[in-house]
């Protein structure tokens, strides 16, 4: 079985045909033009997909077209209700695509698409129940239960970054305070890194990144590895909050595995070793509770395309 | 279709035949004798059920026997791994029952059984996806997705009370700090009531309950209704934490309804009106997000029996 998977982002729209073994065919892409009416963008995307299907000799062989989009969606109706980064409001994506393409079209949240891709063909492929957290500018999430994406009413669930772990805590982008996103995103890690630098003028972090405005997510890992106390404190605190968030999802879902993606998840053992240790030490139910491993994602930037296509795979 | 539903508690074990319309037949019960070996208790229960089936003329008409038990269970194997209140350790409940009874036997967590009962035949019966929280000595929870109980790996998920909403917060019975249970249980409400009484010697709460050791969950509601400021503060704080916990479950599951049971849920409008207001004001996604109502449970003490039997209904 073959489906088209499309990943919509604020810079570009990318896609490819994907088969039910997770193999990705030749890719296509188009720039995302900010300010252009959403209807026009989707019409162009539909034309691009139509041409791609012809050029790949896939006419009649496509089970459907899956689309991962940021924002608040109504997956049942194929509408993007609101996507701040894209400037889209109540855009009837599926309906517009359908004017050009006669294949079934399904829409899902971009974090959900990536999670489904990892669950089916990446780090979660041997497991039934998978929780994925994407640690980027924000914290996205996806829930896969028995191999199927759980999206909630209208597809508006699975907002695993917008779960308060600290009542009255740090302001979150969603309006609430103390969400996991406000502690476990790359943005939060960088915020805390800068705070620690201002508080510790002799920290090694200043040597690694003399221009504080350019500080990224790696500075704290590098300085901590070299024994910098201020950086170690930031990292330990980050692991604590992320660990508590993951423990929460373990108690709710008791998944087989938790997959982390996004820039921070590239930190390797410096993140995963202390994080798994933190979780093992605090695991609810102790001896009787099945183990949950926290592992890095494996599919990189293809996870969204693969997962969007996988909406059509059993 | 008819099944037997059994609810195991620290004082007694109760059960009844239940049909697939949720109708409860004559009930049976036996005392729970603390300190008696679990094997013996279950053997006695099996005999009681056998006699009950005969006396009700239900031989051959029973689809199965569902059992709700407190503690950490392995639902796949029908084992109670550990139940502190019952003094049970690795008790093979299904296997022991099966020595006397030839019907299929299923075990589930008692909070899950109650949630399934409410979801199928009580406050959640018109809805697909239901989250239930039981606000008692602890906080139990149950997740019903598309009419089916979600239990997680080995049935050890759905621990909705053991989700941290305040990192480094109040000590929880589970070993972690800041769980929802430590803020939203009746135990937590009473703890905060007593604290407020000690801090406000002229509070009306002292008139309502002069003996502080006897303070229950109702004192704060009664005093708050009469305008007592200290009681109102306790109640507002309770609603805030419970509200944040519920908002978390809305963002994760986007359920159709959240059902509250347990002693505190009997407080009526004094609890549900401000709680629903709190949630409406902070609902993630705003206009595009489907509404979630928080409502009281409807089945009372029968929910566990009905839900345990409902493990056998489609």
Can you give a write-up of this model?
Two copies of one chain form a homodimer. Chain A folds into two domains: 2-118 and 302-310, Nucleotidyltransferase, domain 5 (2-Layer Sandwich); 126-297, ATPase, nucleotide binding domain (Nucleotidyltransferase, domain 5, 2-Layer Sandwich). Chain A has helices spanning 38-55, 93-100, 110-121, 181-184, 186-199, 205-208, 219-225, 229-253, 269-281, 303-310, and strands spanning 2-8, 12-19, 24-31, 62-69, 72-74, 79-83, 88-91, 105-109, 130-135, 139-145, 148-149, 257-261, 293-296. The mean pLDDT of chain A is 95. Chain A has 314 residues and is an alpha/beta fold. Helix content of chain A is 36%, strand content 23%. Chain A is built from ten helices and 13 strands. The first copy, chain A, is globular. The longest helix of chain A has 25 residues, at 229-253. In chain A, the strands form three sheets. A five-stranded mixed beta sheet of chain A has the order 3-2-1-4-8. In chain A, strands 11-10-9-12-13 form a five-stranded mixed beta sheet, with helices on both faces. In chain A, helix 1 packs across helix 2, helix 3 (110-121) crosses helix 10 and helix 7 (219-225) packs across helix 8 (229-253). The A-B interface holds A 72, 74, 81-82, 128-129, 143, 145, 150-154, 156-160, 162-167, 174-176, 240-241, 244, 247-248, 251-256, 282, 284-285, 287-290 and B 72, 74, 81-82, 128-129, 143, 145, 150-154, 156-160, 162-167, 174-176, 240-241, 244, 247-248, 251-256, 282, 284-285, 287-290.
């Amino acid at each position: 079985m073959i489906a088209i998977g499309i990943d919509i982002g604020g810079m570009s729209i990318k896609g490819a045909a994907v088969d039910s073994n997770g193999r990705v065919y030749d890719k296509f892409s188009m720039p995302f033009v900010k300010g252009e009416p959403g209807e026009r963008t989707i019409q162009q995307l539909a034309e691009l997909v139509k041409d791609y299907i012809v050029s790949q000799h896939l006419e009649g062989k496509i089970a459907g077209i899956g689309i991962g989009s940021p924002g608040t969606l109504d997956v049942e109706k194929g509408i993007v209700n609101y996507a701040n980064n894209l400037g889209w409001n109540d855009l009837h994506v599926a309906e517009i695509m359908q004017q050009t393409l006669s294949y079934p079209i399904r829409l899902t949240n971009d974090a959900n698409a990536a999670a489904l891709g990892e669950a089916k063909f990446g780090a979660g492929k041997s497991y039934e129940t998978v929780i994925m957290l994407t640690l980027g500018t924000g914290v996205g999430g996806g829930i896969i239960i028995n191999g199927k994406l759980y999206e909630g009413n209208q597809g508006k669930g699975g907002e695993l970054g917008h779960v308060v772990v600290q009542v009255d805590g740090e302001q979150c982008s969603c309006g609430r305070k103390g969400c996991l996103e406000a502690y476990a995103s790359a943005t939060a890690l960088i915020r805390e890194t800068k705070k620690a630098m201002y508080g510790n003028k002799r920290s090694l972090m200043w040597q690694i990144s003399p221009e504080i405005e350019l500080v990224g997510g790696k500075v704290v890992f590098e300085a901590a590895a070299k024994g910098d106390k201020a950086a170690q404190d930031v990292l330990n605190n980050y692991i604590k909050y992320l660990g508590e968030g993951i423990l929460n999802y373990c108690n709710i879902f008791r998944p087989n595995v938790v997959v982390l993606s996004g820039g921070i998840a590239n930190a390797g053992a410096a993140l995963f070793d202390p994080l798994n240790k933190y979780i093992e030490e605090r695991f609810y139910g102790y001896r009787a509770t099945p183990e949950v491993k926290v592992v890095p994602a494996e599919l990189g930037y293809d996870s969204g395309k693969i997962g969007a296509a996988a909406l059509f795979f059993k």
